[in-house]
Every structure is written in C-alpha cells, then in structure tokens.
Amino acid sequence: MYKRQEIEGIKRSAEVNVGVLDYVAERITPGITTEQIDQWVHDYTVEHGAIPAPLDYEGFPKSVCTSVNEVVCHGIPSPDEVLREGDIVNIDCSTIKDDFFSDSSRMFCIGEVSPDAADLVRVTKEAVQVGLDAIKPWGHLGDIGAAVNAYAREHGYTVVREFGGHGIGLEFHEDPFVSFVTEAGTGPILVPGLCFTIEPMINAGAQEIDMTDPNGWTVRTADRSLTAQWEVQLVITEDGYILTNYHVIDGANSIKVTFSDGKEYTATYVGGEEKNDIAVIKVDATGLTPVVIGKSSDMLVGEQVTTIGNPLGELTFSESTGIISALDRTITMSDGTQMNMIQTDCAINSGNSGGPLFNNHGEVIGIVSAKYSSSGSNSSASVEGLGFAIPMDDVANMVSELVTNGYVTGKPILGISVEDVSENVQSYGVPAGAIVRAVTPSLCGEKAGLQVGDIITKIDDKEVSSASELIAAKDTYKPDDTITLTVFRNGETTTVKVTLEESTPEKEALQEKAQQQATQEQQQQQQQQQGSGGWPFGSFGY
Predict the structure, then answer these.
(1) What are the pLDDT digits (tens) for 437-453?
(2) Which has the closest alpha carbon to 253: 275, 270, 268?
C-alpha cells in the first residue's frame, strides 16, 4: 500500500505518461510507421526527465508497445509496419520518473475504420469505465473483473483470460494480478493506498490467444479477429469513510468527528458488526489522507507499535508507544463475548477505543478496543499495560461488506434471546445451558416451535452449558443450515429442528425489540413477586 508521499511521486510519473499519449494523439495518421511512434515516445519521455519503462525490460527492444488489429498486446514497433486507413492500434506507454512507475494505453482509429472496429474500440473503453464504477474502498478486486466481463459479453465480445492489469508503483509489475474474468465478491480487498491498472483486452471473436510468435513477445488472437485494449492506472482512496469500534457509536443519537486541523464534521452511520466490535461511519469530506492497511499476521511478539487516541475524552490526539505483548489472545469481554486480540503494553484508556494500532512502518494492523481493568473495588490488583486491539486481518473482509451492504452477510440467526441458567436455578435439578428469554415473532426460532423458558443444552452433538457457548456454536453454521437443538422443557428433554435464517439489520432489530419487551415483562413480574417469596425461575415457567 502506498502512502501519500509515494502516491504524489506516482502522479508525477503519470503526468509524463499521459503527456506522451497526448503527444502521440496529435501526430498519429495513416502512413506513419510504428517505429516512428516508438521514437516519439522515447524522445518525449527523455525530454521530460523520465525513462521509457519497456526499453530493455526483460529483453524488450523498444520504448513502447504498438499492437495493431489482431495483436492483443506486446507488439514490437518496426520500420516495416505502416499504419493504414482502417487500422486500429493500441499504444501502450509505461514511464519511470524519480523511481516511480506509471502505465496507460489508448486505442487509436487510423482514418476511417469499419463500424465493427469502431464499436469494439468504443465498447472496450466503456468497459474500463464500468470497471472503474465498480470500485469501492474496501470492496473486492473481483468486482472489477466481473463488471468488465459482463459488459463485454453483453455486447457480444470476449475477454482475454491470460493477461490483465497489475499492481504498480515502485516496480513495473507488482501484486495483485487484475483479472477481468472474475466473480464479484472475490479477490483481495481494495484497501486505501492500493495502486494498480485496469486494462482489459477484449476480442471481437473468441477469447483464445496465440503466443507462438518467434520474437517471444507479440500475442495475437487465435482466430485473427480484431482486439482492443484501453488501460488506466489508479490509486484506491476513501474520502470520508472512518473505521471505529461498534461500542463507541452504539446508541448514539448523533456522531461528530474532529480532525487534527480542528475541523468538525457530522458523521452518518454506514454499518456495524457488534460481535466483532467494528463500525463504519462517513463524513462528507474530501482530500483526506487515508491510512495504509498492514497485515496483522505479519507481526511478531516484541515488535514496536503505536496508538493514537483521545484518552479520558479530553487529551486529544495523544500518542503512546509500546510493543506487542502477545498475539492471538482470546479475551472474554464484559458481555461474555470472546474475541481474538492483539495484546499490547501501549497506554490505553477510556477514549482510545476505535483508534488505530500502527506498526513501525506506519501501517494500521489493529483497532484499539479494550484494556484489562481491576475487577471491582475490593480488588487489590493494580493493572497496567494490558491493552487489546482487534487484528486487521480478522475484520478487513467485514469492513468491505459494511461499506457495501451496511452489514456483514452470511451470518446465521436463531431468532431467540438467551441467557445463562443460574446456579440457583440449577440447584433445583435444572440442567446448565442457555435459557430462552424471548422468541422473536416470524423468525426461524418461533417457526421451529422454540418457547420462552426452554433450556438449550445441545446444538447437534455439541453440548451447550451457557448462552455464550450456544452463540459460538451457532456461529459455526451458515444460513439455511438445519440444526437439531436438545431442549429441556417442563421437566422433560426433547429435540427441536431449526433451519437457520440469515441475519439482517431488520431481523436484528426485531430480535432486539422482542428482547426489550421480554425484559420489561420480567421486571414487572419480579416486582409483583417481591414480598411473596417468588420462585427461583424468575419470570419463566417450565
């Protein structure tokens, strides 16, 4: 991922790169040779303090690729190749300036071309724009190829499989490879700072290619049909999207964001994932500097890390430095949820939540989420240096879905609210498990016949002794999976088959409403029972 300063260097290289193609566009006519184009490209590039990237690249003999008619890519300029009326040609120009690479190409119609050739050139250019329109920060690389391929096929054309776009910046060709025959929702995450090219090669005929040219470079369509290619280079940025903790904005009536320059913006809620404690908000601002996302899986215990936050809600933009104390630490939160965390001894306090955890390269590898505190006023333990951050590798895909959909898809929901069976209740011979506090109307739990007061002791063959164990076991399944619950009901054990549904914000809201209503009813019943002895099962009868 490239930082702002590096992106500016890539832009300077791109200015020369685009200028070259503009220069060619002013001069290209029928009767010129591809060798002349090569000379134009070479001279313009050198005069502007840059280097033609193709020249001597893995033995390529020229400063530019000129691919005419049926040539898919890597056409070698020649004094014997004369452009004629009706030809179509791709000029693929790559530039190095101040050690930064840039790469783009254009199609040129030589004089009057056939309607079929003109249509192919037009559709190919439009397909690139369709690919650009499919890009969303935190989306998937596969979204681009899927959109390009669908558009080309819609117009009766095929897309070359073997060649595609590529990462670029400090090297000519970097990861990732950008295929244009992909499926949406697949491939690497489009994180801010990623720089790559979109350059589909689209054939009028079959998608098969011929790579047998003796020069070892030039690629043609196998059926010698016309082919076209447009290429653009881009950097992923995200203006206004902000990643934070779910618990930071949970229940907020309004959200305000203050930047280091003192500017304050009202933010809107995009989506959140409570279980993993992440949320995405958005401000209406442009020109923001995005962070660079690193890989938390590359980190080692003992490596230096830094966090920035607002401790105590009043010490704005405070920076603290420490090390990674442990990785893959399983932490039980105050609500019983278990999370995989990075442990650090950075000074973390209330107000740091949602802030970034940087590695020593300035890349975000975690989201500060929690710290360990002494348990109660009677504890004599003084706890310091036990802070925890959510690994970026664990939530990157989720962030993509939050930006795109507002929620994480593919999660199952049971349609019930549960809590632990207390030890007091168990003393009456009731088994440990997850007691059903509320059943959400119209969701799968109700459809299967689950009832308030049921105690769930197994999910399939896995024993369940608490609400958190039930939730954890449920989350190993997918929507539409059918599970068998072992239930203790009215002193007897029975089984209930439930076909899980997909969790959506609407269904979660229904479940929350049902839970709140059940809580109110329980409180009312407890008040009525006060002074009358009550019974240990609270508001639930069995």
Answers:
(1) 999 999 999 999 999 99
(2) 268
In a domain, 395, yes or no: yes
Instruction: Report yes or no: 414 and 445 within 8 Å, Cβ to Cβ.
Output: yes
* Domain limits for position 478: 412-529
Q: How far is CA 223 from the centre of its chain?
A: 39
pLDDT at position 536 is 42
User: pTM score, two decimals?
Assistant: 0.56
pLDDT tens for residues 122-158? 999 999 999 998 888 778 999 999 999 999 999 999 9
Domain count, the chain: 3
Q: Is the pLDDT of residue 468 over 70?
A: yes
41 and 84 fall within a common domain: yes
Cα gap 203→226, rounded to integer Å: 6
With b for 16 or more beta-carbon neighbours within 10 A and e for fewer, the 199-218 pattern comes to bbbbbbeebebeeeeeeebb
- Which CATH number belongs to the domain containing residue 308 in this structure? 2.40.10.120
Distance CA 363, CA 493 (A): 53
Place of tokens 């920060």: 137
Phi, psi angle pair for 388, to nearest 5°: -140, 145
Q: Is the model's pLDDT at 164 over the cut of 60? A: yes
The side-by-side arrangement of strands in the sheet containing 241-244 is 241-244, 278-283, 264-273, 255-258
DSSP characters over 40-53: HHHHHHHHTT-EET
Specify the pairing of strand 278-283 against strand 492-499: unpaired
Structure tokens at 23: 């220069």
Task: Supply the DSSP string of 63-103, one letter for each residue.
Answer: SSEEEETTEEE-PPP-TT-B--TT-EEEEEEEEEETTEEEE
Helix (H, G, I), strand (E, B) or coil at 506: helix
In a 3-state reduction of DSSP, which class is residue 467? helix
